[in-house]
Write a structure and sequence with these properties.
- By secondary structure, this protein is an alpha+beta fold.
- It has six helices and 15 strands.
- The strands form five sheets. A six-stranded mixed barrel has the order 2-8-5-7-6-9. A two-stranded antiparallel ribbon has the order 1-12. Strands 3-10 form a two-stranded antiparallel ribbon.
Length: about 325
């Protein structure tokens, strides 16, 4: 559901919405999931505008980090993609790290949030996510978790990057209904497995959330730090590597039997500098109910990414039931 955002939107955010964001340091919301392979909204080099000291890292079609943050998103005709290492990973049986797309109306690029799940099989577990993308269809209290196999949502750069068929990716909103991770490109399998292993197949669980300082293990993967934040802790936890997979577009293996043991994951998104590309984010959730209409309007519209919205109600991800994948937010 993440939607790429443009610079005009960002300017508006820095004025009016900034005060709202400052006040909303905690609350209750919902989650959804997506993985569209688009460059994240916060991956553009508009550092001062985005309130960050460095942009989120994006990768080329071979999943190798790009040094030029001005490369256009693959979801807008360019060659910049989300890096596979920006997928979620388990730190322990009850704690995990990852990345997410947040509302394009009230974004805080690279802000970290601690999510405490309040429903489903993982109720009580916690996950710290960094906002690397935005979505015009993501509500203010919805967190669209970046997760391979979470569904493309509105945009799809994955088919082009990994040369895999639609049968591998599953439903546009929500992805596969069963664990088909062994058929995914090798670099994306660990992140895909996360949904079935650590999350135990939980479908858009609700959460209590609060803003927190980012763990160094998360910023080591995204490459992005919010101005004023001081990441702490080890740069690698849970056996996760900070570097993206180096294998070039792995071909999907549809014959693999069981899902390979989850490997460390990571994800990312982007924002556009030059003429911002059209929205390319859509939030995808497994229970794709009619995507919750979220204002994709103007002043705060960010370049879209893709995420998928699922069930409708709740905030952060299409509130509990709804989830409209909106692609990465690009400035």
């Amino acid at each position: 559901m993440p939607a790429q955002f443009n610079r005009l939107a960002v300017s508006a955010l820095l004025s009016g919405t900034a005060s709202v964001l400052a006040a909303a340091a905690s609350g209750s919301g919902t989650t959804t999931r997506y993985w569209d392979c688009c460059k994240p909204s916060c991956a553009w080099n508009d550092l001062s505008t985005l309130g960050i000291t460095s942009a989120v890292t994006s990768c080329d079609a071979s999943d190798k980090p790009l040094s030029d943050s001005s490369v256009q998103s693959a979801c807008a005709g360019g060659t910049a993609y989300m890096c596979s290492n920006q997928s979620p990973w388990a730190v322990s049986s009850t704690e995990a790290y990852g990345f997410a797309a947040v509302s394009a109306a009230t974004p805080k690029c690279c802000q970290c949030y601690k999510l405490t799940f309040t429903s489903g099989p993982i109720s009580g577990n916690t996950m710290i996510v960094q906002a690397t993308n935005t979505g015009s269809d993501v509500s203010s209290t919805q967190f669209d978790l970046a997760m391979p196999g979470g569904g493309f949502g509105i945009f799809d750069a994955c088919t082009k990057e990994w040369d895999a068929t639609s049968a591998v990716w599953g439903a546009q909103y929500g992805g596969p209904s069963t664990n088909t991770c062994p058929s995914f490109p090798a670099a994306l399998q660990p992140g895909c497995d996360f949904r079935w292993d650590w999350m135990q197949g939980a479908d858009n669980p609700t959460v209590d959330w609060e803003e927190v300082s980012c763990p160094a293990a998360i910023t080591a993967k995204s490459g992005c730090v919010r101005t004023g934040d001081s990441p702490s802790g080890p740069s690698s936890v849970g056996g996760a590597s900070s570097a993206p997979a180096t294998s070039a577009a792995p071909a999907p293996s549809s014959t693999s039997p069981a899902a390979a043991p989850p490997a460390p994951m990571s994800t990312s998104s982007s924002i556009s500098e030059a003429a911002p590309a059209p929205s390319t984010y859509s939030s995808s959730s497994s229970v794709a109910a009619a995507p919750v209409p979220v204002s994709t309007s103007s002043a705060v519209a960010l370049p879209e990414s893709s995420s998928t919205i699922a069930p409708s109600p709740t905030i952060v991800e299409a509130p509990e039931p709804t989830e409209t994948d909106d692609d990465t937010c690009e400035l």
